[in-house]
Amino acid sequence: MERIPILQMGEFLLVTIQVDMHDRLAMTLQDDLTNRISQTNANGVLIDISALEIVDSFIGRILGNIAKMSRVMDAETVVVGMQPAVAITLVELGLSLTGIRTALNVEKGMALLRATVGEPATEAIATEWDEEDDAED
Description:
Layout: E1 6-9, E2 12-16, H1 23-40, E3 44-48, H2 57-72, E4 76-80, H3 84-92, E5 101-103, H4 106-116, H5 123-136
Parallel strand pairs: 2-3, 3-4, 4-5
Antiparallel strand pairs: 1-2
Helix pairs in contact: 1-2
């Protein structure tokens, strides 16, 4: 059976979806991911969907379910790499993806996870945020 790899990076799990998602694969990912959160006591999950060109309502709901299940298991979820066409489709389908935080890329997603769980962000990211805050003042 086809499976999506789940990598552990310290206290976080990294999922990089590099194949077209079909319903059975999405359900398998949901089960595998909740099991890995339980086994590793992960504090966060980063899901990279940059290779996905199409997300239907079922896959969108599965992503939402993964975030809700992760949250119940005390892990935050960040989805990164969403292509514009995917974002448009999700909005047109009326899916809000409640409970899922998003970031532009993996680097920003990891910084968001670190900030969310109280781990200090890298110096480069912290500097970038400070510059943005100064620009707003």
